[in-house]
Amino acid sequence: MRESRRNGLDPLLVAAVIQVESRFDPFAVSGVGACGLMQLMPPTAEWLLSRDLKPAHLFNPVLNIELGTLYLSQLMDQFNGDLNQALIAYNAGPSVARSLQRGSKAWKRLTQYPKAVLTAYKALLSAPEQIAAR
C-alpha cells in the first residue's frame, strides 16, 4: 500500500502485477533471471537504486516492491499514462514497447501480459463484492 501510494499507483494494480509476475512468491526467479515478487531484472534494480545490488537483495519483499512500484510509475510517466504500454514495457522493456508494431506477432504475444494483469486487477476489484455477497 505504502509504496503504491508513494508512487501514485493503485495498490490493487500493484497486487495484480505481483499476482501475474510471481504468484506472490517472494523467491520466484524467471527463466531470464528476473527476481522476487515483482520480477525485477538485477540490472534494472541497480539502475533504479544507482548502486550495486546483489540479485539476492531482490528477494526482500519490501525492497522489491519499492523498486517495482518506482519502475512501473516511471514507465507510466514515459508512456504518458498509457497503462497497456507501461505494462508491456514493464514486462519486455521500454525499448521493446516503443518499437512494437501493432498487429505483429510480437505485439500479439506481448499484449497478453497487460490483459493478464488487467484480468487479475478486475478480480481483485470485485473481491470485496464477492466476499460481501457470501
Can you characterise this structure?
- The chain is mainly alpha-helical.
- It has a single domain, classed as Orthogonal Bundle (Lysozyme).
- The chain has eight helices and no strands.
- The two termini are 26 Å apart.
- The model has no long low-confidence stretch (mean pLDDT 93).
SSE pattern, N- to C-terminal: HHHHHHHH
- Derived from helix and strand composition plus strand pairing, the structural class reads mainly alpha
Total beta-strand segments? 0
Give the CATH class: Mainly Alpha
Shape: globular
User: Tell me about the biggest sheet?
Assistant: none
Write the layout of secondary structure elements.
Layout: H1 2-6, H2 11-22, H3 42-49, H4 61-78, H5 83-92, H6 94-99, H7 105-110, H8 112-133
Properties at a glance:
0% strand; 8 helices; single chain; globular; mainly alpha; 134 residues
Q: What's the quick description here?
A:
Helices cover 65% and strands 0% of the residues. The chain is mainly α. It has one domain (2-133): Lysozyme.
